[in-house]
Amino acid sequence: MFSWLSTARRLYSVFVGPPSLATPSSTSPPIKFGILGAAKVASTGLIIPALSHPEVEIHAVAARDPIRAEAFAKKYKLRTFYGGGDAYQKLLDDPEIQAVYVALPGGLHYEWTMKALAANKHVLVEKPSSVSSEQTREMFEFAQKKGLVILEGLQYRFYPAIIRAKEIIDSGSLKTDDIRYTWEIGGGIFQDMGTYPVNVLRYFTSSEPTSVLSASYTAHPNDPKVDQAMTTTLAFPGDVVGSIELNFEIPYKFGLIPSLPKMDVTVKAENGEMTVKFFVLPFVYHSINVSVKDGQSGKGAKKRTEKVYSPTSVKGRTLKGEEWWASYRYQLEAFVDKVKGREPDTWLTAEESIANLQTIEKVYEKAGLPPRPKSTFAFSPITDDSIEAKRTA
Ligand SMILES: NC(=O)C1=CN([C@@H]2O[C@H](COP(=O)(O)OP(=O)(O)OC[C@H]3O[C@@H](n4cnc5c(N)ncnc54)[C@H](OP(=O)(O)O)[C@@H]3O)[C@@H](O)[C@H]2O)C=CC1
Ligand SMILES: O=C1OC[C@@H](O)[C@H](O)[C@H]1O
Question: Which reaction does it catalyse (predicted)?
Answer without folding.
Answer: D-xylose + NADP(+) = D-xylono-1,5-lactone + NADPH + H(+)
